[in-house]
Design brief:
Length: 315
């Protein structure tokens, strides 16, 4: 029996819908066991007690006074391997060194005085020397407003953070969106080997998806995944919640492969999905590890490796 073109068309359409349903089917429930952190305001220009980036969190019971090493000379500088930030510059006691976005490197100039310098003690240049993995030609000094000499790395004035109380602490990372750990070359420390999408263990939310820069990835509860991905975040929304661009399947680690695909938005921009749900980052997150977008408006949530919204209320 011959099949008419109309019948063939209907069969092809049915197969197409079935395939899309398999790839972008409805999810079974949401993950609600994790804590809803809510939207956290960024710290001030020179940091505050309640806002930290990565590493040990300064909280109740943590001494707010700087350790003795904070006021000592720098000694032989060293390079430390940090799981979140890669290679980080430290002083001889293992305390992390930081740079300030409001400073300048050409010419070197510190704009952190008064209360700022109390929260972020300048590193003296007196006896600073280059240890293994550090180019001594990058080390210099700048004269501060009080006449003291401060260490510079590739022109950037170097600081410690008063809330870093032990070797390896990086609680100053991302504070105020202006303070960052120093890499050995004077740049902001950050990992460069992360896949396009991977996961990290958040102390409050559990396992969450992050992008190639280590920034937390989010879902918008007003979006749709079935029968095809649809983003409800347009216009000004995208300025606050930038869409994550396409990521190759083989450029992911720890993320469930099913429904890992990209789609074309109405504006022609391609956006990545996890389990067919559109994903975004948050402009309010200033450093890897930030989760300031979690729970915003009761509609934005970090993404679990299987694409479910972490901590979202059950439907």
């Amino acid at each position: 029996m011959k099949t008419s073109w109309r019948s063939a068309s209907l069969v092809a359409s049915a197969v197409s819908v079935l395939a899309l349903t398999t790839a972008c089917g409805q999810e079974g429930g949401t993950q609600a066991a994790s804590q809803n952190v809510g939207a956290t305001a960024a710290a001030g220009n020179y940091g505050s007690a309640g806002s930290t980036g990565l590493g040990t969190t300064a909280g109740a019971g943590t001494s707010t006074q700087a350790p003795a090493a904070q006021t000592s000379t720098a000694g032989e500088l060293a390079v430390s391997d940090n799981a979140e930030l890669g290679k980080v510059l430290t002083d001889s006691t293992g305390l992390t060194l930081y740079r300030f976005d409001d400073d300048t490197a050409e010419p070197p100039k510190s704009n952190c005085d008064g209360d700022c310098a109390t929260a972020w003690p300048p590193v003296p240049a007196d006896d600073a020397t280059a240890g293994a993995g550090i180019d001594k030609a990058l080390l210099g000094e700048v004269t501060r407003s009080d006449g003291t000499k401060q260490l510079t790395v590739a022109g950037w004035p170097a600081y410690r953070y008063a809330k870093d109380t032990k070797s390896g602490d990086t609680t100053g990372q991302g504070v105020g969106g202006k303070w960052y750990a120093l890499a050995p070359d004077g740049k902001k420390a950050k990992l460069t080997s992360l896949p396009g999408l991977s996961t990290r263990k958040d102390p409050d939310l559990g396992e969450v998806v992050v992008d190639k820069n280590g920034m937390t990835v989010y879902r918008f509860l007003k979006d749709k995944a079935w029968p095809k991905p649809v983003s409800a975040c347009t216009g000004a929304c995208l300025e606050k919640w930038p869409a994550v661009g396409p990521v190759a399947t083989n450029d992911t680690e720890g993320v469930v492969k099913k429904g890992l695909m990209s789609f074309t938005r109405p504006d022609g921009v391609k956006q990545q999905t996890v389990n067919c749900w559109p994903i975004y980052t948050f402009s309010g997150d200033k450093a890897p590890g930030d989760t300031n977008g979690q729970g915003v408006g009761g509609t934005w949530y970090a993404v679990a490796p299987d694409g479910k919204p972490v901590g979202a209320p059950k439907e």
